[in-house]
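Structure (tokenized):
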């Protein structure tokens, strides 16, 4: 799979580690364990919330979010949006990238 960063250059990403997802307005997408998972907003606007975390994260086009926290992330499309979800670099004691087990729901 290829992703297009906001600067217009193309970067190769192995298909098993990243994917693009189009979300309709008010659609939600869940990442059960968001630790070291890179969530990038390619277009549109998404709201991200982590379980038991008081922060609200809003990403617009070219915005990127990662966390070391082992928490579920809920991604909500505030308008039609496209995101890229990619397994990141795992913790230093492990060389294995986190697996992506994901859930999607439409409101």
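Design, position by position:
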């Amino acid at each position: 799979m290829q992703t297009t960063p906001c600067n217009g250059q193309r970067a190769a990403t192995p298909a098993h580690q990243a994917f693009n997802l189009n979300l309709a307005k008010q659609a939600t997408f869940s990442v059960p364990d968001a630790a070291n998972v890179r969530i990038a907003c390619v277009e549109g606007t998404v709201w991200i919330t982590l379980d038991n975390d008081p922060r609200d994260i809003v990403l617009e086009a070219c915005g990127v979010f990662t966390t070391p926290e082992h928490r579920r992330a809920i991604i909500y499309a505030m308008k039609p949006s496209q995101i890229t979800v990619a397994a990141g670099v795992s913790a230093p004691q492990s060389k294995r990238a986190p697996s992506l087990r994901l859930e999607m729901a439409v409101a």
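Reviewer-requested clarification: Confidence is low (pLDDT under 50) at residues 8-16, 91-100. The two ends are 28 Å apart (CA to CA).
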